[in-house]
Each structure stands twice: as structure tokens, then as C-alpha cells.
Amino acid sequence: MRVDLFDFDLPPESIALRPARPRDAAQMLVVDGERPFCNRHVRDLPDALRAGDVLVFNDTRVIPAQLEGTRGEARIGATLHKRIDLRRWQAFVRNAKRLRAGDLIAFPADVTAVAEERHDDGSWTLAFQGDEPVEVLLERAGRMPLPPYIAGKRPTDEADATDYQTMFAREKGAVAAPTAALHFTPELMKALGTAGIGSETLTLHVGAGTFLPVKADDTAEHRMHAEWGRIDAATADRLNAVRAGGGRLIAVGTTSLRVLESATGEDGVILPFEGDTSIFITPGYRFKAVDGLMTNFHLPKSTLFMLVSALMGLERMQAVYAHAIENGYRFYSYGDSSLLIP
Predict the structure, then answer these.
(1) Residue 292 in domain
(2) Is the confidence at residue 146, as pLDDT, over 90?
(3) Is residue 246 a contact partner of residue 51, using CB atoms and an 8 Å limit?
(4) Which of 19, 158, 259, 321 has the CB geometry, 3.0–4.6 Å to 229, for a possible disulfide?
């Protein structure tokens, strides 16, 4: 499909620079089949779902994966993208033209890394020096990797260390938050449980590739960056039991959805999964695992807007986004939410 079909005009003032407080006070646009749109708030979620439904969350934890350093007199910026092994990460590099294989990059707090190899997509393999775990080094030298559409308008500050982390964050390794789950609070989870709505978790370590624009003119020419995910056998069994009993699986975020769809066979059975996924979902895709999606509002011409258009239909999502803009919904990572039931 032509990528420009997924374009739309978004006023700059629609981009949220801070999250709603409290988190579950964010607006939520409910889109249930062909029914009229319903303007709600995230705290109303128990009333928008039904007993027996299960929300599937991503328990990845964002690491301080953005680094500023030097190679000689040249300033080098690095955003870690994907772990390769215990000491090596693939990273997107700013001012990469000043790097050569074998160069040593000096970051703050005596953290250093060797630029080992440049990849076809322009990213580099960085090998961190020393014996300390890389996560420890990042805590000393790194900062939270806010999306460029926020970082370009204000600096990262102390509030982001908690604002950009979900209440489910346990497994360290993401360089971007699974933002749909930023809206959840312990109080909301208690209300969902009281309403008979369950929850499960899986893991997808979101990479910086989630922020990259689609540069191809046709979706068939776009290559997704791989991200590591996992569903254990016990979780897969429980999710299959929910569907067998007539319950619906509602993915909280496109990251949870992508792992579920990657782990599910053509027969609709969710299998244990551990490894990389580069699944690219566009209109025409047949969903096998999910019955709905809770997600924020995404960038024009992004793979995520293509995904929601695959779930709900392109014309329907164009109408959804026009309604959201007209009614003052806030967009992107710190923005408002939508509940999409095809």
C-alpha cells in the first residue's frame, strides 16, 4: 500500500509534553465496531469492557539508554536500540560520520565503548568496556530516551524517570516505553479486578526503531527493526483458556499485540515464544490472537498507525483521528488513549 494513504495533518499543539495527572485521568476514545464514538476517560475502562475480558500488558522496563559522549573533539550521541549480548548493543548514533570502526567513545562517569561495526541501516554496534554490567554503566552515564517529538521541545528532567515508566515495568531492556500502559494506576487495576476483568503480562523490549519514520513510498518496501519478546508457557496456556471460555484478549499497546500475534499459529493457539520479532502489520493482515487494543494516538505515516488501520480499517481510523483532533485529544507517548474493538 502507498505510505501516503496513512498521512494526516496534526496540529503541533495536539502533542502532549507531559502525562495526565493522575494517570488514569487521561481521555479515552472508545471505538466499538461501527457504533458511534464514545468520549470517556481511562478510569472508565471497567465500564467499557466486560467480565471475563483479559488485558495483556508489556512488563518491559525502560533503561537510561541515551548517551552523550565524545570521540576526540567530536561530540557523539548514541541511543541504544537492541541488545546483542552482555556487553554489546546496537545503537543509533548522532554525528556518526565522525566515527570509524575501532574508535573509542568516552561517555560521562568513566563509561567508554568501542564503535565496532556500522550496519546497513546506519546504526552501530557499541561494545562497552570494563567488567560492570552495562545496566550499571547506563544508570551512571545515561538518561531516559524521550521520543524526539518531546525531547525536541523540552529537556528530560527528573519527573520523566517515573513518568516514562509503567507500573508493570520489571524486565530491564526497553529504550522506549510501552506507552499505552502509562495510564494505569493501582486504583484502576483494583477496579478492573472487581469488575471481573483479568490481566496478564508478557515482555517486548521496545527499540528506538519505533520512532523512525517510514521512508519508503510503499509499505512493501519498509523493513521493520527486530525487537526481543517473550511469552512463557504458563501465560500462553492461561490466555488460550480465556479465549476458549469466551473471554476477549485486549492488548494494552501495540507492543503487546505484536508479541501475541508473533506467538500465535494459524489455528489461533498462542504458543510459548522467546526471540526476535519484526512483524509488520498493515491492512489486509488477519489477526489471530487479539480481540481488541488499547493504544495511544500515533504519528502520521507510522507503522503504528498502519497497525491500528489494519485492526479497524483505514477509513474508520481516519475518522477516529479526525474526531480526536477536533475534540482536543492529546497525541503520542504522553497523550490520551483509545480503546479499539473491531
Answers:
(1) yes
(2) no
(3) no
(4) 259
Is 284 in the same domain as 194? Answer: yes
**Parent domain of 125:** 66-142
| pLDDT tens per residue across span 279-300 | 999 999 999 999 999 999 999 9
Contact 290, 247 (CB under 8 A): no
Listed residue (269, 264, 321, 326) closest to 297, CA to CA:
321
The three-class DSSP label of residue 171 is strand
3-state helix, strand, coil in the chain (%, to 5): 30, 30, 40
pLDDT, position 211: 64
Task: Clarify whether residues 291 and 270 are in a common domain.
Answer: yes
Same domain for 197 and 125: no
pTM of this prediction exceeds 0.90: yes
Structural domain includes residue 151: no
| Contact of 292 with 251, CB cutoff 8 Å | yes
Residue identified by cell 496513512 is 6
DSSP secondary structure of 88-109:
EEEEEEETGGG--TT-EEEETT
